[in-house]
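Quick one: structure tokens for this chain, please?
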Amino acid sequence: MRNEIINVGCFGIVLTITYDDDNGGRPDSGSIVSELHEDFEGEVMDFNDISYDAAMDGIESLVLALAMAEVDVTQQGFVEAIDTAVTAAAGNFC
């Protein structure tokens, strides 16, 4: 097993992809951290806050899924697409 750390280059998105030698060297599991979520600690979240967080979860899930499918998520066009998606989603809730 080996891990690959991928810094996507926007919104602090960092992926950790684990490759399993028993799986033909293909990705086996992964995780993501980012700065996409607002810090609502100690606050009561309203519907827009919850919806915004859910939209960011969706974007994170898609980025991780594409990386697991071995798509180059650091490519400039992809990074621009993430920025566009986040901006559009945030515009719906802010």
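Residues 2-93 form one domain.
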